[in-house]
Design a protein that fits this description.
179 residues; mainly beta; four-stranded antiparallel sheet; three-stranded antiparallel sheet; 2 helices; disordered N terminus; binds zinc ion
């Protein structure tokens, strides 16, 4: 694993329009979360997810984001603290920015996918692979039970067990199925 030191500098060639919207971090039952201080209209790009770009396929962390081409982004605050929801109000997308030398650099942007109210928590769908799935406490009616890619839910249940019905958000543990 090595850090591609030239990339964060190159990313500054392209900047999002300055936003007047304010966000804050705060404590949640699942660690730090990110909250809106202002109402945010659907479709608003909130900002670039800045951080450290890391080369290599073996890099793992709770927060890292896949950039393709064996690159990962280890995000900085505040957006490293955006929690998962199975029914999220934001999404991440990647833009590949070409610099003046013709080199292409990946950038991740977080955008509101629906109107977000003041003091509402910003969430994204982590869509983890089944092997890495953990029980979800998002408390949405359409919660998958696991933090997992929707198409890998069946596999997650096979690997980790059926989850009992939740009584309190986050207050549940997997039931291990007999092999
Ligand atoms: Zn959920």
């Amino acid at each position: 694993m090595s850090v591609a030191e030239n990339l964060p500098v190159a990313l500054s060639y392209w900047k999002l329009p300055k936003s007047e919207l304010r966000i804050r971090t705060d404590v949640t039952p699942y660690g730090t979360g990110v909250f809106a201080c202002d109402a945010i209209p659907a479709g608003t790009p909130l900002g670039e997810v800045r951080g450290t770009i890391i080369e290599g396929t073996d890099y793992q962390s709770d927060y890292c984001m896949d950039l393709g081409e064996d690159l990962s982004l280890e995000p900085d605050a505040p957006y490293r603290y955006v929690n998962h929801s199975c029914v999220p109000n934001c999404e991440l997308y990647q833009i590949d920015i070409e610099d003046e030398y013709g080199d292409v650099h990946p950038m991740i942007v977080i955008e509101a996918t629906r109107d977000i109210a003041v003091d509402e928590q910003l969430t994204i769908d982590y869509a983890w692979p089944a092997e890495e799935a953990i029980p979800c406490g998002c408390a949405q009616a359409k919660c998958r039970g696991y933090i997992v890619h929707p198409e890998e839910l069946d596999l997650a249940v096979k690997l980790h067990g059926v989850l009992p019905q939740r009584t309190v958000a986050g207050d549940f543990a997997p039931t291990v199925l007999p092999k």
